Amino acid sequence: MKPTLLVLAAGMGSRYGGLKQMDGVGPHGEIIMDYSIEDAIRAGFGKVVFVIRHSFEEEFKRHINADHFGGRITVEYVFQELDKLPAGFTVPEGREKPWGTNHAILMAKDAIHEPFAIINADDFYGRDAFRVMADHLRTLDGKQGSYCMVGYRLENTLSENGTVSRGVCQTDDQGLLVGMTERTSIGRTPDGIAYKEADGSLHPLPADATVSMNLFGFTPDYFEKSEKLFTMFLKEHGSELKSEYYIPFAVNTFIANGEATMRVLKTSAQWFGVTYKEDRPMVVARLAALHAAGEY
């Protein structure tokens, strides 16, 4: 069994300005997704499914297709749009944003039938993270409700150019996730790392806190569970213009209900990404160093 990689690429990167997934940051014009797919191929993934939007489908497919990867991996596309909702629900007037990361996952339910990992399109996860994830996914074939994620140290995932959002994880003594709390506006302060609440108050976070960078692993039953939960979510929040159906919300719900467990996998990989355009020079320099070291 070869696991599948699901790439969440429907976001246009409003803070960065434009379709940042297409920004060449490698020494030869490589985009960050090129490195992720290369690492996934080396780790043994057999297919990659991209979640995109029709508005930039042509531009995306010009760069990202099976030929681009030398035919070494099967490539498919699915689409996240506002109106892709369960029967009986409609988009509220005035809503512009899609329904969040877990809604994006649901778009692939007809394309994936094996254990799969998900990643953000514009994040660099590191080769070891894909190896660890693929090795674990291969043990899950035929299982249900046995999920996993790769955890990173919070201090290794921050931007020097603005705040970030992270899912802060709590684990038990067996390495299983107990809960994940989505924190927004996380950044460095004179007193250490902290996140800011809507009222402006700051709350500290430990530098070695385990955080999610949206590198999750699921078995296919996740789609059915998520669809049922999405219906409940829409009943409660579907009329709101900015509500989002996040992965941490779904994962927390399934764990709390005893429907699933999630193992937190450890990796030696270093994460980095272009959250803001000012992050770009750092990413370019780090990728150049990896090429110089013979990693790519």
Please describe what this structure looks like.
By secondary structure, this protein is an alpha/beta fold. It has a single domain (4-152, 212-253, 262-292), classed as Alpha-Beta Complex (Spore Coat Polysaccharide Biosynthesis Protein SpsA, Chain A), CATH 3.90.550.10. 26% of the residues lie in helices and 26% in strands. It contains seven helices and 13 strands. Strands 1, 2, 3, 4, 6, 7, 8, 9, 10, 11 and 12 form an eleven-stranded mixed sheet that branches. Strand 8 (177-189) and strand 9 form a beta hairpin. Helix 1 (32-43) crosses helix 4. The model is unreliable at 12-18 (pLDDT under 50).
Concise summary:
A hairpin with a 2-residue loop joins strand 8 (177-189) and strand 9. The chain has helices at 32-43, 57-63, 101-106, 127-137, 221-237, 247-256, 280-292, and strands at 4-8, 47-52, 74-79, 116-120, 123-124, 146-153, 164-171, 177-189, 192-196, 202-204, 210-218, 261-265, 272-273. It is of the alpha/beta class and 296 residues long.
Q: What key phrases describe this protein's structure?
A:
alpha/beta; Spore Coat Polysaccharide Biosynthesis Protein SpsA, Chain A; eleven-stranded mixed beta sheet; two-stranded antiparallel sheet; 7 helices; 13 strands
- The span between the termini is 26 Å
Total strands: 13
Number of helices: 7
CATH topology: the name is: Spore Coat Polysaccharide Biosynthesis Protein SpsA, Chain A
Overall CATH architecture: Alpha-Beta Complex
Computed over alpha carbons, the radius of gyration is 18 Å
Instruction: Encode the helix/strand succession as letters.
Output: EHEHEHEEHEEEEEEHHEEH
The top-level CATH class is Alpha Beta
CATH superfamily caption: Spore Coat Polysaccharide Biosynthesis Protein SpsA, Chain A
Strand content: 25-35%
Residue windows where pLDDT falls under 50 for at least 5 positions: 12-18
The percent range for helix content is 25-40%
What about the largest sheet? 11 strands, mixed
How would you sum up the global shape? globular
What's the rounded overall pLDDT mean?
A: 91
- Structural class of the secondary elements? alpha/beta
The domain tally reads 1
